């Protein structure tokens, strides 16, 4: 029988990722730019305008984006 132990896992590599950050002071909304649905998205939590930001996060690939040549 084998047991799963989280302590033996190596931490996932992190990198600086460009994001959209909510401009509303009391809102914590944000999204990765490569996961945003438009070039100028609205906050998914409050609907406010979003601005450029950067966060240190685990790198994820967005496979739903279509590549055009």
Automatic annotation (TrEMBL):
InterPro entries: YdjO (IPR025916). It comes from Bacillus atrophaeus (strain 1942). The lineage of its organism: Bacteria, Bacillati, Bacillota, Bacilli, Bacillales. It comes from the Bacteria. Pfam families: YdjO. This is Cold-shock protein.
């Amino acid at each position: 029988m084998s047991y799963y132990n989280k302590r033996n896992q190596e931490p996932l590599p992190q990198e600086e990722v460009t994001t959209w950050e909510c401009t509303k002071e009391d809102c914590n909304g944000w999204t990765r730019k490569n996961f945003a649905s438009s070039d100028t998205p609205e906050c998914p939590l409050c609907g406010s305008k979003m601005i450029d930001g950067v966060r240190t996060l685990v790198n994820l690939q967005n496979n739903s984006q279509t590549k055009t040549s």
